Amino acid sequence: QGAIEVMHHWVAESEIEALSVIRKGVEAKGFQWKDSAVGGMSGANVQQALRARLTAGDPPGAMQFLGWEGVQWAEQNVVRDLNDQAKAGGWRNALPPQLLPFLTAQETFIAAPINMHRQNWVWANKKIFDDAGIPIPKSWPELIQAGRKLKERGVIPLAMGDESWQVEVIFDALLADLNGPEFYRKTAIDLDPKALGSREMVKVFDMLREVRGLVDANFVGRDWAVATGMVINGQAAMQVMGDWAKGEFLAKGLKPNKDFYCFPTPAPVTSFQYLIDSFGMFKVKDPAVQKAQIALAETVMDPAIQKRFNLIKGSIPARTDVPVDEFDDCAKLAFKDRAEAIAKGGMIGAMTHGFASRPEFAAVFGDVAGQFFVGTMSSDEAVKMLVQGIENAR
Amino acid sequence: MNASRQSSRLAAWLPRLVVAPSLLIVLVTVYLFIAWTGVISVTSSKFVPVYDFVGLEQFARLWATPRWHIAVENLFIFSTLFLAISIGLGLLMAILLDQHVRAEGFLRAVYLYPMALSFIVTGTAWKWVLNPGLGIQKVVNDLGWATFRFDWIADPQMAIYTVVIAGVWQSSGFAMAIFLAGLRGIDNSVIKAAQIEGASLPLIYRQIIIPMLRPAMLSVVVLLSYIAIKSFDLVLALTNGGPGAATELPSTFMFSATFRRNQMGVGAASAVMMLMTVAAIIVPYLYSELRERNNG
Amino acid sequence: MSTLEIDRVRKSYGSLEVLKEVSISIDTGDFLVLLGPSGCGKSTLLNMIAGLETISGGEIRIAGRVVNDLSPKDRDIAMVFQSYALYPTMTVSQNIQFGMKIRGVPKAERAKAVQAAADMLQITHLLERKPSQLSGGQRQRVAMGRAIVRQPRLFLFDEPLSNLDAKLRVDMRTEIKRLHARLGTTIVYVTHDQIEAMTLATRVAVMKGGVVQQLDEPQTVYDRPANVYVARFVGSPSMNVIPGTLRVEGDKVMAVIEVQNRPPATISGIGLSRDAAARYAGRPVLVGIRPELFSVANGQPGTITVDIDVVEPTGPDTLAVFQLGGVEVTARLPPKQVEAGTATMLAVDTSKLVLFDPATENLIK
Amino acid sequence: MSTLEIDRVRKSYGSLEVLKEVSISIDTGDFLVLLGPSGCGKSTLLNMIAGLETISGGEIRIAGRVVNDLSPKDRDIAMVFQSYALYPTMTVSQNIQFGMKIRGVPKAERAKAVQAAADMLQITHLLERKPSQLSGGQRQRVAMGRAIVRQPRLFLFDEPLSNLDAKLRVDMRTEIKRLHARLGTTIVYVTHDQIEAMTLATRVAVMKGGVVQQLDEPQTVYDRPANVYVARFVGSPSMNVIPGTLRVEGDKVMAVIEVQNRPPATISGIGLSRDAAARYAGRPVLVGIRPELFSVANGQPGTITVDIDVVEPTGPDTLAVFQLGGVEVTARLPPKQVEAGTATMLAVDTSKLVLFDPATENLIK
Amino acid sequence: MAEAISTLPSPSPAPGSGRVTKTDETPRYNRAWIGRLFIYATLIAMAAAYLMPLWVMVTTSLKPLEEIYGGSFIGFPQNFTLDAWRVAWSQACIGTECTGLKPYFVNSLLIVIPAVVLSTGIGAINGYILTKWRFPGANLVFGLLLFGCFLPYQAILIPMARTLSLIGLAGSIPGLILVHVSYGICFTTLFFRNYFVTLPDDLTKAALVDGAGFFRIFWSIILPTSIPIIVVSCIWQFTQIWNDFLFGVSFTSGAHSPITVALNNIVNVTTGRKQYNIDMAAAMIAGIPTLLVYIVAGRYFVRGLTAGAVKG
Ligand SMILES: Nc1ncnc2c1ncn2[C@@H]1O[C@H](COP(=O)(O)OP(=O)(O)OP(=O)(O)O)[C@@H](O)[C@H]1O
Ligand SMILES: Nc1ncnc2c1ncn2[C@@H]1O[C@H](COP(=O)(O)OP(=O)(O)OP(=O)(O)O)[C@@H](O)[C@H]1O
Ligand SMILES: [Mg+2]
Ligand SMILES: [Mg+2]
Which PROSITE patterns does the protein's record reference (chain B) (predicted)? Predict the structure, then answer.
């Protein structure tokens, strides 16, 4: 029937495999799938390509959205509304309400979410923990403490790379964990100048400095997957990383809680820092493509598809009504934490991947955290720089 | 008579007609687009272009961004060192290659090949080579010199120098090629004359031949400055601007401002700054070049 | 005393033999010109004297000392190159004193030497210019200045005038001649221009294919060329070499030459040793007559009548071209005496006429 | 009939005036040589005749037809360039027939024309070579071949011999002369070599700074140069121009010239119109004496005694350089008659002596 | 002069006098071989340094992935395998299309060949006009063209996209070719102009007198003599266009993408796992054409540069 071009930045092996689930779903409905992948630079490359495409008046049929992208395009009035499908499919009820700001514009659905990653995970080598007799830490100071102990035993406590986004993952976690999800909301989302410049913020940076002490010197240019590998082969004890890291363990045939631990970054109030991938449809004239768009939206929101997709991708479905049985222990934990977070207000978007403030501000957090982490800046200086940076970007 | 007069008219206009499309293309794709960038830099454009007028606000914002300061400072450090070292190495290689060495063709190809490869991937190889735990430092440490440190890439103060190293690796072969070409054009009898006067070979090179390479030097300087100013994938692949923002350059800044941070106006402002820098270098060069040509 | 002795010197590039056992020896104060066509090995020989090329065989001695393995700077020579080889980035003054600077001559002394050389060559006003701002003749003078300040035992010149235009060439030639007279140094000078060789040399070595054909005083080379090659190479227009037959009648030696459409011409009064005359009597010879040995005759006996083909007035003279003995012959005559297409009677000055053996092409003595 | 008329032609590059009202007219079969120093505008004028440069003012007519706005190919001309401008990627044969090919001449005809030209120029064995495989003289012939096959009304030559070495230059000169005689075409020929001009031309236009100084037959230009500039430019060695004073005693016209360290010399027997003699009597004049007008005197009256500075034997002649009237004077004498450093008595052939006005430097008629 | 001669050091017996020395390029004087040793040592050391990244790439591409993640980044492969090369060429997934680099390789050829030919051709004719058919303002035109070489391309993506859509070439290979050509002519015009300046004007004049016209002279006379600079222009343009990512990703999509975009999709993984061996193999596959061009025509590159770009 119709053909739909889908633009995305999934180029890693597991990502592609997961995406193929959707592709097959669409193709099963009798539509053709035209793949337009542009990887790299945390999606900046695909953003640039998409911008060129839209400027040229030649948008793809569908696009993978991250963070505010969908909403921003909707503001430009180039995104097709999916209200009919949403109504028919009961999307509103099936999705956590915290996601709606990223999926709707003026009450109309503009994107269909496929999955939900949790970013604030700690992955740990069980054997190392057990050998050192370290329990799963309940707070960041405890984690630091444990790290110091491990370091003495000749293990790298925390595996990570020096890329800004890897630092930000930790920063995001600290921001929510040390002062509670409310503080995260005030700073990372509302950009409240008072909160940004507060003592609590200084504490966040102080702790980040402590975390720096747990990382080895060779962390430059290290990929997150390489870091995960270090945890797997026992060179390092822990890694703070989103649940895409889980795939690395599973691929080695390791089992959660038997060979490795997965636990949320420790905090009095456990937050659930999510990021979702969604698909939005651009306005196009060709009726065949329009039909294909509907098919894609329906496929994406199909609970069966969501289950299969997420089993591969390592994330959990965006829909809350998908059965959990076939998922692994870590995913089950995520399901549980999510339900809890939705109830207790611990659901917060991951700033690193654009689910908090808009990119121009989020980037300032990234700048400051990244520079702070690799440099010798004091926490006060970092806070000052943050406040000024946000001000300048307004 | 008249017909032939007309045909000679046509003949007079033909060159202009033939060159006109090129000129038109360049007027649009270079100058019109520069003008457009200039316009955007005085608007409040963020995600997509908007055409309002906000004065020099974006420039003020640009100069209030610490990352931009780092970028400008880095550009200065990077281009100075990159030029100096590339020229020095290129000249050395060219001079040595000019000594009737065997396998000159092979060596020349070795020095030139980095130009041919995209940095998208050679960047990864460089990352490993420079990584203290994997590359040079580890090799030297393993060989027994345990205190040897070469961890610039991890050090925000030093990381920009690793970009210089990679840049030199990529471009010094090009400088070598131009210098070699220049050396080949030098009259042999000048060297003989200096030999008879008792000058040693190093002295001959220092005092006579290198000064004679001035035209080649000029070309190298201009082309390398151009490479330095446009360096983009070099940085992205090697350090992605990090650690922190330690290796940010104006070109990477411009890209991330426009496409990652949704600050199109700031991106345009930085582009305008870059263009002005380029013009400051290129226009005088062009002027002198063209004037010289006219005389000669 | 011999300043320069070239003793059975050979040079090969791989299997290509460029110089074959060249031996030349000259005295202090001599002006030796190496004359020969392009590619005959002149520059190679000069470069070997200078130490810029290795010697494949034989010896070169300067002032009695073997220099085969001496580096150029230790040979006490100075060289002026065809392209002048001025250092383009230095001023004239810096060019001239570069060598002294290298040898560590104090500044004051250098300045004095530069001044002296510049005065002698009249380039004082040019001292601060760069070579690119000089005309050909001026560059040539600077190159000479650079050589002069060296005060070498031996000057080497490699075709220093060939880049100049005709007029300037004549001027600079006189200049070099004067310089030699003033300095009295020994000079080896390479050229393929025989006029330069004639006017400048005290000794000319005519070369061909890496072999010295004749080494003699210039006028001797001109008047008594060792073979047809030298005869033809030296002199402009070339010597006419006309096939004929030698006739000996008692003491009188005559050459008989075929003339187109006319009875053969006889040139009598040729001076030849009795011995040689006997050997070649009645046999074919090559008769060498320089163009200026012809003159328009007024019906005296012993003249030749020819049909003039082409007339080329050069100003002071007129060149007349005609056929004689089956070859094209040029005569240099005073202006306006002949016209193309007319028959003319010509006399020959036999005192300077030479004869060659047709087989060996060598001079019959 | 006039084949070429150049009528008050001007040329400016921007504000630089390169040619100033040049008027020249020549007849069919004439061989016009444009003679002048580098940069005087010769090539510019030639290019304007060819249609390769626009004309800033005036008219050029070929065979009576104004060609100012005609493209080169319609002017019925052929041109030989200084650098020969052979097409480097084509063989000799292709080079020669390129123009015909463009004009659509059938292949067979082209081949015939090429063969004819090659035979005439003796380059048949070179037809399949590339220009880079040819010697200078051969290239020159190919360039001529390319021009000949065109069979134009007008041949243009731009310094075709200046890239050749001395020997070849002489040969090719004769070749061109012969070609002109054979083809009978009209030729315009640019050179800065006065010997070429003298030997080749039927008409010489001496130019300086974009102005024609004299347009005449070559011997006239040589014997009666219009001004000092022409006198000096034509002839090698140059005409000696010596300051002196004119003395008129009745019918006898004499020039008095200062001699260093000796009493003044008087040259008598100068032919001058009564009118001119009257005008210049007792006033300073410039005396023009060609080097060949001197001869060694045997004590006759009216001779000049001088101290010879430099002697340059050229082979057929010897050049003697000495001081006269405060300037350097060159005499061309037979070989071996004088020696440097000696005092010599010289006679002057006054029949060809010329006088110039010191103020205007023009010939006194 | 006389003093100069008398103060000469007395001749000392020269070593090895009279010996027949071996033929050599230049005369060999004392300790020349130390210099040669130094020259070769430096050149070889430098070559080794230059080859190091290539060495890393080659060895990595021959290792199984596990070995790399096991910590062996640099060093000789223990388990030698060519799998990575095969996968990169024909199996690696670019998005959900697991075709390897092969089709994109073809795309790049489809882009690079017309773009190189066009930009070289246009540059040649521009250079020809700017040197042999100069008109008032020719220098200005040249200056305008030349400045285009120095444009930072990141700044013009958006207006270029708009322009391409206006002329209906958005998202197509012809559109991308047009972009490459329009910025390429800046460089090629520079190369050809500087080369043609050195060709004698007489050549054009002779052809004019022979009756050839504007195009005929260009085609029959000028082009055949410009092989060296054509080679330089082609090498330069080939490298630039083949290695371009920015324009490729902006102005084409999906199956039309050039090889660099595909390569980027293989290499540039953020939240996935990197397959270094395939990355390196892919990178080298992508680099082979340019490397070949450099090695085969590298000699002309240096020679042509002398003629083209350097004359200052
Ligand atoms: N480095 C070299 N290798 C091989 N052959 C050479 C080399 N240098 C010169 N020759 C050859 O040696 C011969 C003599 O060369 P040389 O330069 O001495 O000639 P020349 O008499 O100076 O000629 P010209 O008047 O053209 O300068 C030539 O045939 C030349 O080709
Ligand atoms: N295109 C041009 N623009 C400006 N000036 C020019 C141009 N072409 C020639 N000239 C000037 O015009 C004058 C005459 O040049 P032309 O080439 O006619 O000299 P020429 O007599 O042929 O000299 P030569 O013997 O060196 O060839 C020179 O001063 C030259 O600098
Ligand atoms: Mg030579
Ligand atoms: Mg000229």
Answer: ABC_TM1 (PS50928)
> Quick one: pLDDT band at residue B4, thresholds 50, 70, 90?
very low
Question: From ligand 3's centre to the CA of C218, what distance in Å?
Answer: 21
Distance from CA of D69 to the nearest CA of B (A): 6
pLDDT average, residue stretch E18-41: 58
Please report the pLDDT score of residue B292 as a whole number: 53
- Work out the average pLDDT over C295-321: 84
Closest CB from D52, D77, D85 relative to E203: D85
The per-residue pLDDT of chain C, averaged, comes to 89
What is the predicted pLDDT for the residue at B31?
Answer: 92
Distances A357 to A116, A203, A365, D28, E46 between C-alpha atoms, Å: 18, 21, 10, 93, 50
C-alpha dihedral (A66, A71, A75, A76), degrees to nearest 10: 30
Q: How far is CA A372 from the centre of its chain?
A: 22
Q: D and E: touch, per 3+ CB pairs < 8 A?
A: yes
Q: Which fold has domain B66-252?
A: MetI-like fold (1.10.3720)
Pairwise CA distance, residues E146 & B54, whole Å = 32
> pLDDT band at B226, cuts 50/70/90?
confident
Neighboring chain E residues of C56 at a CB cutoff of 8 Å: 20-21, 23
Q: To probe the interface with D, which of C200, C314, C322, C338 has the most D CB atoms within 10 Å?
A: C314
Domain boundaries, chain B: 66-252
Residues B162-189 pLDDT 10s: 889 999 998 898 888 888 888 887 878 8
Q: Report, as ranges of residue numbers, the positions in chain D whose pLDDT lies below 50.
A: none
The strand pair at A347-349 and A272-281 is best described as parallel
Residue where the block lists tokens 């004067």:
C178
Check residue E273 and give its pLDDT.
Answer: 67
Evaluate whether chains D and A are touching (3 or more beta carbon pairs less than 8 Å apart).
Answer: no
Residue D122, both tokens: 């003796």
Amino acid of residue B46 = K
Domain edges within chain E: 29-81, 100-307
- Delineate the domains of chain D, giving CATH numbers in brackets: 2-233 (3.40.50.300), 240-356 (2.40.50.140)
Looking at residue C291, what is its pLDDT? 93
Q: Which atom of ligand 1 is nearest to the CA of C192?
A: 25
The alpha-helical segments, DSSP class H, found in chain C are: 42-50, 92-102, 107-121, 136-148, 166-183, 194-200, 218-223, 228-233, 274-280
Integer CA distances (angstroms), C17 to C39, E28, E102, in order: 12, 20, 57
Q: Flag whether pLDDT at E23 surpasses 60.
A: no
Which tokens go with C217? 């005083």
Q: Determine the Cα–Cα distance for residues A375 and D234; give it in Å rounded to an integer.
A: 84
Q: How many CB atoms lie within 10 A of CB B77?
A: 14
The answer to whether E259 faces chain A, any CB pair under 8 Å, is: no
Q: What are phi and psi of A206, to 5 degrees?
A: -55, -45
The answer, for E90 touching chain B at a CB cutoff of 8 Å, is no
Burial class, B95, CB count within 10 angstroms (exposed 0-12 / middle 13-18 / buried 19+): buried
pLDDT at residue E16 is higher than 50: no
- For the segment(s) E100-307, the CATH number from 3.30.70.1650, 1.10.3720.10, 1.10.10.10, 3.30.420.10 is 1.10.3720.10
**Parts of chain A with a pLDDT under 50:** none
CB C286 within 8 A of CB C355: yes
Q: Which two tokens stand for residue A373?
A: 């982490």
CA–CA distance, E267 with B120 (Å, rounded to integer): 8
Neighbours of D167 (CB within 10 A): 18
Give the C-alpha separation, D175 to D144, whole Å.
10
**Which tokens hold the place of B276?**
């002005």
Both structure tokens of A12: 């890693």
From CA A201, how far away is CA A274, in angstroms rounded?
22
How many residues are given for chain D? 365
Do D236 and D35 touch, CB atoms closer than 8 A?
no
